Amino acid sequence: MKVLVAVKRVIDYNVKVRVKPDNTGVDLANVKMAMNPFCEIAVEEAVRLKEKGVASEIVVVSIGPKTAQEQIRTALALGADRGIHVETDEEVQSLEAAKLLKAVVEKEEPKLVILGKQSIDSDNNQTGQMLAALTGMGQGTFASEVVVDGDKVNVTREVDGGLITVGLNLPAVVTTDLRLNEPRYASLPNIMKAKKKPLDATSPADLGVDISPRLSTLKVEAPASRQAGVKVADVAELVDKLKNEAKVI
Amino acid sequence: MSILVIAEHDNSSLKQATLNVVAAAKAIGGDVDVLVAGENCGAVAESAAKAEGVNKVLVADNAAYGHFLAENLGELVAEVGKGYSHILAAAGTTGKDFMPRVAALLDVAQVSDIIRVESDDTFVRPIYAGNAIATVKSSDSIKVITVRPTAFDPVAAEGGSAAVEQLNVVKDAGLSVFVSEELAESDRPDLGSAGIVVSGGRGMQNGDNFKMLESVADLLGAAVGASRAAVDAGFVPNDMQVGQTGKIVAPQLYIAVGISGAIQHLAGMSDSKVIVAINKDEEAPIFQVADYGLVADLFEAVPQLEEELKKVL
After folding, report:
1. Locate the Electron transfer flavoprotein alpha/beta-subunit N-terminal domain: which residues (chain A) (predicted)?
2. Which residues of chain A are within 8 Å of residue B239 when distances are taken between CB atoms?
3. In angstroms, what CA-CA distances link B179 with A146, B64, B268, B280, B289?
4. What pairs with residue B96 in β-bridges?
């Protein structure tokens, strides 16, 4: 079966985020960019499904500027077979991303679509669910285990109270949580090979999707910082402070 | 304006997060209706009707909603919500699951995880794991919003007397089925709404050592949490994780034990009123946000803490 994986180019998770002085956004100039960590887990899961003989082909798609091709190449180096780049320099919000992915799904007809549960920039946690709704598919969000069985998939989900397993008809959408797997690193030979794998470019206009944003960001500010308090000498002093100074016990 | 709040519950009791979301709805203004979708959830509807400031409670009681499957809830809420200006749910794993489906079916954007209401179309939300705070304005006719419960003080659970209305809307999308669940059983308060949280990190060394924290938590009537490092190391289950990708908590008192204070952990607890850090590494970043820091070996300090607490409580 064919698996479609969506990946997003975001600020590297190790980079300290700085808000621009004019409060229009976050400073991304000369900042290291990388594949969103949850998307790495999505790619890894697809590759494991292929290694198990469950998946026959892995198609990786990314929406974004020309530079997003770097993340597609990374996914190809990790084991994806071919890439699709939906190129745009405009901001693409979750609903519009889901509509673009829907257009790709209609063309590619994958049995399974795997996405990260959220991107670490906008933290929306929406695109997978929206794609599932728009395409009329079932969804297994925040997955910690994915078991494909014939034309069904069982997805174990990390939820507030513990774990829930749902059974979905294929095709279906899965979004990954942290404990689904531990992504591998790309080997140098595979990085070289990835350069020769096919990568098709398309655009929102080609796909017939209007990507005008519905939400406008009025300002972006740094969070209020918390001041460090005092060090206490021992447990007795700590308990005394909590009881008599902070009055929280 | 009229606002539909989707209740969070377990078919037998209303989760407190619902009261926080009603508070967010009141900050937007207008009539607030609450939708209780579940199976045999009459008691939940009765609780919701008693909540302060609720105009009307709508109940969709059907097996299709018993396990809160997103495919079914999405269709239901999109249909019932069409007549409202705003649809709100708590940004827990249930709300995060079905609300984007609602937004997509209504062809509107969703505003995720709001922490403040500026006006009926403008909301404040954290981005980049809380390293930046964005103010966003929605141009859609229906605003679909998930709310970070800890950012809003709950309305009173008692005192209201809303009418309860049964809905006869059954949406079974036939796309998904419930298979099984493994839910943690605990007599301790819910991590997301507890007044005191005691959390352990990698410094706990193993799962057994969390029993020390449980003893302290039980003295304080607290919930027990963990850092991502402790969960990834397999010490404790994932539902105990506090942090950007786990639970966001904001208790009156947060006690971090053996937690270094990675940015993603701080994002989940730095709105706590009072933070205590116990760590043997005095350079640990957790001390930069702690009101009271104790540089000590936790294996000595935690048993002492238990003894000292017994004296004063």
Report:
1. 23-211
2. 158-163
3. 13, 14, 30, 44, 42
4. none
* The two domains B2-166 and B196-312 share their CATH topology (first three levels equal): yes
Domain boundaries, chain B: 2-166, 196-312
Fold of B2-166: Rossmann fold (3.40.50)
Q: Whole-angstrom Cα distance, residue A183 to residue A194?
A: 17
Residues of chain B with C-beta less than 8 angstroms from the C-beta of A229:
275, 290-293
Assign residue A27 the CATH number of its domain: 3.40.50.620
Q: Each residue of B43-97: pLDDT tens digit?
A: 999 999 999 999 999 999 999 999 999 999 999 999 999 999 999 999 999 999 9
Residue A92: closest C-alpha in chain B: B109
Q: Which residues of B touch A119 (CB under 8 A)?
A: none
Could you tell me which residues are beta bridge partners of residue B110?
A: B144
In a domain, A12, yes or no: yes
Question: Where in the sequence is the domain holding A162, given as residue range(s)?
Answer: 2-223
Residues β-bridged to residue B33: B4, B56
How many independent structural domains does chain A possess?
1
- Using one digit for the tens of pLDDT, what is the confidence trace for A11-60? 998 888 999 999 999 999 999 999 999 999 999 999 999 999 999 999 99
Residues 6+ apart with CB under 8 A from A4: A58, A59, A60, A61, A104, A105, A108, A110, A112, A113, A114
pTM assigned to the model: 0.93
- Which architecture characterizes domain B196-312 according to CATH? 3-Layer(aba) Sandwich (3.40)
A237, part of any domain: no
Q: Whole-angstrom Cα distance, residue B5 to residue A121?
A: 27
Write the ipTM.
Answer: 0.95
